[in-house]
Amino acid sequence: MKPSRILLSSTAALALLGTSACVTDPNTGERKASRTVLGAGLGGTLGYLLGGAIGGDTGRIIGAGIGGSAGAVFGKKFDDQIKELDEQTQGSGVEVEEVGDQDAILVRLPDGVTFSSGSADINPGFYDTLNTVAESLIKYPNSLVDVYGFTDTTGSDAFNQSLSEQRAQAVADYLAARGVARSRFATRGFGESYDQLRIKTADGVDEALNRRVEIKIIPISQDDVAAARGQ
Questions:
Q1: pLDDT, tens digit (0-9, with 9 covering 90-100), for 36-66
Q2: Distances (CA, A) of 130 to 45, 122, 134, 136, 142
Q3: Angle at 156 between CA 155 and CA 159, to 5 degrees
Q4: Domain 10-230 in CATH 3.30.160.60
Q5: How large is the angle between the packed helices 75-88 and 127-139, nearest 10 degrees?
Q6: Dihedral through CA 7, CA 11, CA 13, CA 15, nearest 10?
Q7: CA 109 vs CA 80, 133, 222: distances in Å
């Protein structure tokens, strides 16, 4: 089993800015901070990730049509999927980690690269990375997929809540358009929440690094299917 990624202290993370902690904006070529290192400021996996599937999994399992092909034991497939995603997204700024003990796979899309400020339009330069995620979801179909959206602190709370929901929906729509069954998806926006890491920009502005989407892949076993059908 692949262990969860160990997160650095925020001091160490900030010290790494400008080196391997950076990724390139696909539109502008600008180097930006990667969440792989900056995630250190979050103090480990956030509580909202440890809960169940959005809206509960019973109805979603039935609605997604997950059935006889779900394995009673999915450990190896889980390990294979997380390993492949980690390898295939290297250099993109994406962070892949295990949630709990094979409870889910978290795919964190990088801050400030996937979306421009105030926008829910996916940067075209990030399409290839999302295509890789879609291919993985198609290859490993026995899972539910929760997509979470977030924003920085620019704009009103109401605007940012709506924008975060639009970002989550945009990523889910893109993955569905690439062939992933739409019935597997649920989305939720968190607005400015969980902006627990801030940095000083070149002009001295205290900026929250929170312009991102997270994709939570929740594996479903044959036991889960049987329990859903029995309710």
A1: 333 333 333 466 677 788 988 888 988 887 7
A2: 22, 10, 6, 10, 19
A3: 90
A4: no
A5: 160
A6: -150
A7: 20, 11, 30
* Sign of the torsion angle spanned by Cα atoms 191, 193, 194, 195: positive
Closest to 114 measured CA to CA, from 99, 95, 138: 95
Rg from Cα positions in the chain = 17
At 50, which helix (H) or strand (E)? none
The pairing of strands 22-24 and 198-200 is unpaired
- In the chain, the N- to C-terminal Cα span, in Å, equals 31
pLDDT of residue 76: 84
Contact 104, 49 (CB under 8 A): yes
pTM for the model stands at 0.76
Per-position DSSP letters for 139-167, written without gaps between them: HS-SEEEEEEE---SSS-HHHHHHHHHHH
Q: How far apart are CA 53 and CA 55, in angstroms?
A: 6
Rounded to 10 degrees, what is the CA torsion of 140, 104, 56, 166? -80
